[in-house]
Amino acid sequence: MAPKVNLDFILEMLDAASTVDGLREIVERVCESFGVDHAMYHWVDSAGDHYYFGTYKDEWVARYQEKSYVRVDPVIIGCYQRFHPVDWRRLDWSSKPAREFMQDARDHDVGNQGYSIPIRGPKGQFALFTVSNNCDDATWDNFIERHSRDLILMGHYLNRKVLEFEPDRGPGQVQPLSPREIDALTLLAMGYSRAQVAQTLSISEHTLRVYIESARFKLGAINTTHAIARALSLGLIII
């Protein structure tokens, strides 16, 4: 990769964009400027709906939703747990579903390297801006070292513009959590295992599971990690 990046020009294009199609064109320009194969913006809203645009193949985007890969994707799961950018190599790919997902993604030319920036907006919004590429580790390390700050800034500019275009797509009003649901999510967020949470609250693990599933439903979360992240971002739990 030998990118010639004019960040100011890209940010000016983002400020001037007036349509979603214009944002798609800018994402394509990002790939050309940074010398990467793909760039993608992905927002999973509280109803589990996907809002996205970028350069992945339509076939892969459709397959991702058909297979409900959002539930096993280590990038999504890892970014829910973090506030800083994530190099895909630092994520946990050890489970069989994660390995199968990785192979399927590579078969669809997503790339063997990736860098994803978690973005948290108003009312618990969670989105990702990702760039990916096929290259060796040393080349990718050099790329991240040179361009991580620019990519972070660009991701947040992009999200701000998306929010301008989609004012009605916000997470909406969240149902209040019960005291027990708050206790359960708080302890999980602190790193307790489910067994430890159940013991601390003097309840069975089955009852704990009921509280967690109820909290997930109220928060519109796709999994427990997502529920904890949303509860934290909304100020419903504090650790």
Automatic annotation (TrEMBL):
SUPFAM superfamilies: C-terminal effector domain of the bipartite response regulators (SSF46894), Pheromone-binding domain of LuxR-like quorum-sensing transcription factors (SSF75516)
PANTHER family to which the protein is assigned, alphabetical: DNA-BINDING TRANSCRIPTIONAL ACTIVATOR DEVR_DOSR
One BP annotation, GO: regulation of DNA-templated transcription
Keywords assigned: DNA-binding, Transcription, Transcription regulation
Pfam family, one: Autoind_bind
Protein name in the entry: HTH-type quorum sensing-dependent transcriptional regulator VjbR
Domain HTH luxR-type: 170-235
MF GO annotations: DNA binding
Domain of life of the native organism: Bacteria
